[in-house]
Amino acid sequence: MITQQPYVGRFAPSPTGRLHMGSMVAALASWLDARSQGGTWLLRMEDLDPPREVPGAADDILRTLEAFGLIWDGEVVCQSDRHALYAEALESLKRGGHAFGCVCTRKDLASTAVDGLYPGTCKAGLPDGETPRSWRFDMPKDVQRWEDHGRGPSSVAGDAMGDFVLKRADGHWAYHLAVVVDDADQGVTHVVRGADLWTSTAAHMALQQAMNLQTPEYVHVPLVKNDLGQKLSKQTRAQPVSPRDAADVLAKACQSLGQPIPDVDAPHAMLQEALASWDVSKLRENAVS
Ligand code: GLU
Description:
- The chain has one domain: 3-Layer(aba) Sandwich (Rossmann fold).
- The chain contains 9 helices and 10 strands.
- Helix 3 crosses helix 5.
- It is globular.
- The model has no long low-confidence stretch (mean pLDDT about 95).
- Bound molecules: glutamic acid.
- The site of glutamic acid has 7 residues, from loops.
C-alpha cells in the first residue's frame, strides 16, 4: 500500500449519459477527499465503449462538474487516446502467462457459464488453427484483501470475478484492464468511487499484482438508490443533476456520504464548508451495499 506519496485522486466517468445523483456523489467524494488532503484531482474520461456512449455526454459531464465548482487539475485524459498503453499491458500479461485467448461466443457462454462466470473452456489452449476472439485474464483464486476507507476491512475471493475479459471480441479494451493501467500510469494514489465497483477491486488488485504495479488506497462510497431500491443508472432512468438545483444536490450528496449538511445557501460556500468538515471515516457508518 502507498503511504508517503503525495495524494493523487481522480474522477473517471463513462460518457454513457449525463451526471446523475449517483455519479455526482462519487465525483464529490473523490474531490473532497483529494482536496481535504491538499491532493491533486484528475479527470479521466472512460470512453472505451463507443456502442454505449451518448453523443455530447462527455462535454456535458465536464460542464456540469465545472458549474458545481468541482474543478480538476491539468488536462482531461481520454482513454480513447491511450490504446497503445493497453496493448502494451496485454502483451506483458501474455508474456507473463497471465492472459489467454478465448474463442467462446456470447451464445456459447449462455449455455456453459457457471453462476454467470466464465467456465474456463479455453484456458488450456485453443485447438490448432483457431484464432482468439477475445483475451481473458487468468484470475487467481486467492482472496484479495484490502482496508477500504469507505467500507472497512474488505475481502473478495478471486473466483467471484472469474477469468474476466481484457480485450473484447469486438476489439474494444475492457474497463478492468484500462482502469488499472491508467491509475498506475497517472500515479493515482487514492481511488474514490461507487460501491458498485467494490467486488471489481479484487480484479484490479490481481491485475496490479500480475503487472507489478502498486495498489492504491480504495474508498468505496455508498450507492445512491431510487425509490424502488435500484442503483441509479441510465437503465433505471436516473434524472441528470442540474446546476440550477446545486444547493439541493450538494445537500443530498453530503447526506448520502454521511457528512453534515452545509449550513449555508450559496453552492460554492456549501462546497467549502463540506470540504472543511469532510470526514472519510463517516462513510463507514453509511456503508450498505
Ligand atoms: N468509469 C467507471 C464508471 O463510470 C468508473 C471507474 C472507476 O472509478 O474506477 O462507472
